[in-house]
Amino acid sequence: MNPLIRKALNGPYQLSRGEIRELLSLNDTEELFHAAYEVKLRHTGKGVSLRGLIELGNYCGKDCYYCGIRKSNYKVGRYRLSEDDVVRMAHWAYEQEYGSIVLQSGELESEENTAFIERILRRIHTFAGENLGVTLCLGEQSEEVYRRWLEAGAHRYLLRIETSSSELYTKLHPANHSFVRRKECLHTLKRIGYQTGSGVMCGLPGQTLDDLANDILFFHEMDLDMIGMGPYLPHRDTPLGKGIELTPEYKESQLKLGLKMIAVTRLYLHDVNIASTTALQALDDRGREQGLLAGANVIMPNITDTEYRRNYQLYENKPCLDENSAQCRNCLRWRVLSVGEEINWGKRGDPPHFRKGFSK
Ligand code: SF4
């Protein structure tokens, strides 16, 4: 066995930056993925947790250079779900025993938006109580807003840093987007009691393996409970994606890198929740299943009504745009079974890392 993999199997946080980098550069990944899957089994068991994803709306106050719904992309038809629609979708997920949902939208900082989310959370809590995990993915907000949403019934917050390199972050965002504030938001979320998640894009233009190794160390430094990573996928209507060809070679290398990041993150952190993201499936029809076998334990099926999905494309060729939620549920079941795993129906699937911290 590769001695670095053996070392990583002994316990979390065993590897140096150079060793993480070395694992990320492996060409033959069989042993790496197998070991990461073993660690996943050890900490989260044989099972996949679901997060029913509701895309509330695609208005966004920000202009990230890689994102298809950035505010300067005038080609996107903008929408916002009604409060009743969101609650109906959440109720469907609850009845279908998804165990958890994610409420996601572009980043909006306003009292109107804060109160809208707060009302939705309270209504969800009336029928689901603590039996449905609720993750928010609504960007940077003030501590007061985060606290209001926590008190209204949210449990988790996902705020992707996209890269832990401040230099690379500066290249990917306009000057008024602050890397420092994003990090501070993560600290705040953790401090006030959210199960806190973040993640990065892999295979960005200009990104090195050292950057990715630093990203994995950053996850530990921030004491994160959940990781959501995906390969970078270009969108032609964005400054970063313009001109990048999605050739078969490009897709293959992005997929491989995305899977290696899942595996090495699992081998370094051990007890966090790691999502096998839809971006993997955009590169290969079996991408998400491969993510599960490389150490991920969470899948986020889209449960937004299909009429809205086309307008929520952070990257192009997003899969599952036309399948309705019931079709998705069935399809997912078979996909998960096909790799020898099973879905943890009706369970919230809280990250073991958070539960340990809570009982300290
Ligand atoms: S990545 Fe998020 S914050 Fe940036 S433009 Fe897209 S939706 Fe808005």
Overview of this structure, please?
The protein is α/β, with parallel strands linked by helices and 360 residues long. 46% of the residues lie in helices and 11% in strands. The chain contains 15 helices and 10 strands. β8, α10 and β9 form a beta-alpha-beta unit. The longest helix is centred in the last third of the chain and has 22 residues. Iron/sulfur cluster binds next to loops.
What class, by secondary structure content?
alpha/beta
Low-confidence runs of at least 5 consecutive residues: none
Taken as a percent bin, the fraction of beta residues is 5-15%
Ions, cofactors, ligands: which are bound? iron/sulfur cluster
Question: How can the largest sheet be summarized?
Answer: 8 strands, parallel
Radius of gyration, whole Å: 19 Å
Q: Give the tally of β-strands.
A: 10
Count of DSSP-assigned helices: 15
Helix content: 40-55%
Order of helices and strands: HHHEEHEHEHEHHEEHEHEHHEHHH
Q: Overall mean pLDDT score? A: 93
- Looking at how many chains there are and whether they match, the oligomeric state comes to single chain
